[in-house]
Amino acid sequence: MAAVNVPRVLALVLRIEGGYVDHPQDPGGATKFGITLDTLSECRGRRCTKADMRALTEEEAGAIYRARYWNRVRADELPPGIDEAVFDFAVNSGPSRAVIALQRALGVADDGVPGPVTLAAARRANPRKVVNAICDDRLAMMRRLGPWRTFGKGWSRRVAMVRAAALALTDAPPTLAERATALFKRAA
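^ that's the sequence the OP posted. Answer follows.
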């Protein structure tokens, strides 16, 4: 449904996350493009160093985001706008927590698994209400975190940017690719 959004959504995450950062109060430690050293190590199958992190390319970061976050929340099957809100939440807090926020916004069982019930409810839902509920849930969760005093202003700005971008997607007319996909599914 929303696979056409991947490049645009990924570009926003890469822009927000920026380059190499190793803030002493960030519990994630050293990151580049928002990818943590632990995540990079898991993806490469070996313990990576900060030098490996500094050498991480946008292309590899994009592949990691696609496999570990976009695909795990099944964002291709979510309506435009909802896909972005859930994906960016997953990037910061993990896919399961992001899906739980989606499920709570939809009023379905919140098991953290984006199964058929969740996906069907997302397709029937008012996307603007869902995006706002997810972003509100995300901010409330962040405010309870210890590093809020240090990072809260930036986190709030990020959620505001994601909210605006996601809401813009909910208002956008379907692309030619989305219309063709819908027609193809109806014909099958």
